[in-house]
Amino acid sequence: MGSVGCSSNPVDTPPPTIDPARAAVSPPVTAAPPGTVRPLAGQAQAAVFDKATGSLVVLTPGAGDRSVATVVAATGAAAPVELDGAATSMAGAGDGEVFMSTRGGYFRFDIASRTVSRIGVEGQDGVDFTALARRADGRLVLGSADGAVYTLASDTAVGARLKIFARVDSIVTQGNTAVVLDRGQTSVTSLNADGTASEHALRAGRGATTMAADPAGRVLVADTRGGELLVYGVDPLILRQRFPVRDSPYGLAAAGNATGLVWVAQTATNTVVGYDLATGIPVEKVRYRTVQQPNTLAFDDASGTLYVVSGSGAGVQVITSAGAAK
After folding, report:
1. Tens-of-pLDDT digits for all 326 residues of the chain?
2. How far apart are CA 53 and CA 94, in angstroms?
3. What whole-number distance in Å separates Cα of residue 181 and Cα of residue 204?
4. Whole-angstrom Cα distance, residue 178 to residue 160?
């Protein structure tokens, strides 16, 4: 496996870390990219497409120590909503709500009504939550800057706490299995349904940065420093596929529609590539030029629309029928 190794018993204290990898600084765009570009104030941190409302929700920094959640609907102007504090990550289940981690808890955002409520996690007022995901049973899993994962038993109560990471940079779920990405350790680790450590922790290339769950039950990881797309199964956590992707791969999204493509953004060249994983090895099917700094991707299965969200303030690129045969 080369740089990918397995530990049958995750250690109790975090191992030494490396300098986390980062997206490349993208060059200026010299020609109009395909699709349409919707204006968006700010540099995107995260984006989620919500199928219940048919809207994209984008998280950006706001004024002072506040963040902004902007709703980009199919028509009309984008609708920014200021949060009462800084949010660090965002997750949704396509049911009209998104959740955003923040210090001491999380925000719940009702997209249709544009209302936000801040929910504190009991006894964790001082915790800097850096990541969150929602399980199939509705329970939230949050990760912290000091390397702990909290599986909630209710909206506010901690059911389990697990501290074996240097920092929790991303969490995704498949069913009730949560998978944690630690950039400093460049590792992925799966949790048991009760929030305890499973016996599956894997090194993820030479500098993993982002992670996404796909509708086929896989977990996708961008090894930005190593220049690879890593594809994992989660029951148990195992590396299924790995494929070279040049030019600082970073943003990830997966389609569950007829194309079934996995999308990877190459930040060094302002490009997004669609791969077919059906044959057991990724096969490139299509590529598009993008807006500058394509750090964040989202996909709408119903319309086959790919959203490329700029991390440099260049807006949201909307590519309809992405990957479909012409």
Report:
1. 333 344 444 445 556 789 999 999 999 999 999 999 999 989 999 999 999 999 999 999 999 999 999 999 999 899 999 999 999 999 999 999 999 999 999 999 999 999 999 999 999 999 999 999 999 999 999 999 999 999 999 999 999 999 999 999 999 999 999 999 999 999 999 999 999 998 889 999 999 999 999 999 999 999 999 999 999 999 899 999 999 999 999 999 999 988 899 999 999 999 999 999 988 889 999 999 999 999 999 999 999 999 999 999 999 999 999 998 75
2. 8
3. 9
4. 13
Distance CA 235, CA 198 (A): 11
C-alpha 78/C-alpha 58 separation (Å) is 10
3-state DSSP call for residue 90?
strand
CA-to-CA dists, residue 207 to 11, 197, 202, 277, angstroms? 20, 22, 13, 22
Spatial CB neighbours of 308, under 8 Å, sequence gap ≥ 6: 33, 251, 265, 272, 288, 290, 291, 294, 296, 297, 316, 317, 319
What residues pair up with 281 in beta bridges, in sequence order?
A: none
Surface-to-core class of residue 230, CB atoms within 10 Å of its CB (0-12 exposed, 13-18 middle, 19+ buried): buried
- Contact at 8 Å (CB) between 297 and 251? yes
